Amino acid sequence: MLEPLRQGLPPVDPTAVSGSASCALPARFEAVRGARSFTRSTLSQWGLDERFDDVALVVSELVTNALRHALPDDPRPCGGEQPESAAVRLHLMRWSTRLVCAVRDPSEDRPGGSFAPERTDENCDLESGRGLFLVDSYSDSWGWHPLAGRLTGKVVWALFLLRD
């Protein structure tokens, strides 16, 4: 999980990793509230309460995008259980100088389609379609990569730089 994330980020000393946490999210929009709660408790454990507002906004947008755009219309096969490969997962990883929020989903499609961070007067007041613009605005950087191996889908991540 971490190796592809490192490819899009500045070099990280593996010995500086100080924490990681992950949770599976149900394929329901109520999962966004659970993702924020998980983020609050994790950041609190790491002594990063002051970063909660920005991180929670980004987590909310990434999870909402995964639930809205990356899940199949009927994610449950016969029998009612959601397959592991179709799960949405939230990962929080902390190093001494950075925090990464990553959301894994089963879609291999590029997030946001033709997202461009520039806003125009014509589209700045739309009710939807601002998620990745907010991610871009509130995080220090963001990106995505397809998964390899037995997992299919992608990971969309956002980086927050931390002060010492």
What string, H for helix and E for strand, traces the elements in order? Answer: HEHHEEHEE
Broad structural category: alpha+beta
Shape: globular
Strand content: 15-25%
Question: Could you characterize the architecture of this molecule?
Answer:
The structure is a single chain. The protein is an alpha+beta fold and 164 residues long. Helix content is 29%, strand content 24%. Strands 1-2-3-5-4 form a 5-stranded antiparallel sheet, with helices on one face. It starts with a helix and ends with a strand.
Keywords:
single chain; 164 residues; alpha+beta
Q: Can you summarize this structure?
A:
The protein has about 160 residues and is of the alpha+beta class. It contains four helices and five strands, in the order H-E-H-H-E-E-H-E-E.
Helix and strand layout, with pairings?
Elements: H1 2-7, E1 17-25, H2 31-45, H3 52-70, E2 88-95, E3 98-105, H4 131-138, E4 141-146, E5 154-161
Antiparallel strand pairs: 1-2, 2-3, 3-5, 4-5
